[in-house]
Amino acid sequence: MNESAKAIKKNKFMREALGLSDSVINLAELAENALKEQFARVDDTAQINQWRVMKAFADNRVSEAHFAPTTGYGYDDLGRDTLDKVYADIFGTEDALVRHNFVNGTHALSTMLFGVLRPGDHLVSATGKPYDTLEEAIGISGKAGSGSLKDFGVTYTEIPLANDGNPDFDELAFTLSHMNVRAVMIQRSKGYGRRPTYSAEKIGEIVSFVKERSPETICIVDNCYGEFADIKEPTHFGADLAAGSLIKNPGGGIAPCGGYIAGRADLVELCAYRLTSVGIGKECGASLGLNRQLYQGLFMAPHITAQAIKSALFCSAVFEKLGFDVDPLPTEARHDIIQSIQFGDPEKVKAFCRGIQKGAPVDSFVTPEPWDMPGYSDQVIMAAGAFVQGSSIELSADAPMREPYMVYMQGGLTYESAKLGIMVAADKIMKL
């Protein structure tokens, strides 16, 4: 069968079996044809990262023995302790704390903050407003007395971004020179904001800027959504700590839960004391048979992250051609898996999320609706037909229901499946 005949057969299947219009089929073909160079760059990054992961596995002699479950206290859990070493090697750090006990990325980040900060310390966010779910942990919002950093006497300064979306280095320098800053927090991904996602190298520049002016200040990174998007991580460029979720990039779509913290050994120990108890730290914590999934997910992570980035590129190209404001543009370098689209209309946001849900492998029949989600100040609509509940490395989309009505899409375990979800979403938008 020649290429033309294959294309006709594929398009017929999309029309008759999937109900897609000729307009969206043609649009998708145009978008995909324009992305060949970008896809090749993503594949090159995935290859380097895959080799880095494989070297860490080999250097730490990962074997079947590391998958054996432990119960109770979990003393001498070989798989758990070796996984920490594997993560430390991959992230270029002295130590790591990788645990299924972390309930989400916010928990890992909160553990990192509470682990290293003490009453009287000052925390600075160098990249503007942090992700919504951290606000109550810091004490920016929420009730007094709930146990935030603010309640424990940690003060906080938030440095707004410069007009170009990059850190305001003048203001950061002023703050460092006028305050005794214990820690500077850097958020890699844009979250629900409109600014560039920072590359690992860019974060390294921020870290160097801080260290030149305040060598003792700890630089900590919210690395969520960014792992394996570049060939190195922020910790390779001097960040003292980085944290993220295992149901995002590093779990490879296989880890069922968990999070990680990687960095300086003394700081990782403090984080472990926060997660368990002072004096216990990393020594306890049964793996309960989850080690195999955490190892296998990490092994798959570079490839799966590449699939998600290709999906984001395709989404960007399709919706740019439909005339919407997309960020990043299809031609821009990618440093995380997130694609934002500004619709300016709540109905279009709902239609997009419902299209993504319809194209999901799980719960495709569900209709997403905005709701009051814990940790968020506005109603949020979420599309998430995932094998792991809330997994952001699987195709998903979410949006706070507020102006300018932007939706954030991420994930895709396979490019082919994510492509379908994006086409269904585009079809729904085109039919409004």
UniProtKB/TrEMBL annotation:
| Residue ranges the record marks as coiled coil | none
- The superkingdom listed in its UniProt entry is Bacteria
Q: Name one Pfam family in it.
A: Met_gamma_lyase
- Give the InterPro entries listed for this entry: Met_g_lyase_put, PyrdxlP-dep_Trfase, PyrdxlP-dep_Trfase_major
For this protein, the record's Gene3D superfamilies field holds: Methioning gamme-lyase, C-terminal domain (3.90.1150.60), Type I PLP-dependent aspartate aminotransferase-like (Major domain) (3.40.640.10)
User: In its UniProt entry, what is this protein called?
Assistant: Methionine gamma-lyase family protein
Q: Which organism is it from?
A: Candidatus Ornithomonoglobus intestinigallinarum
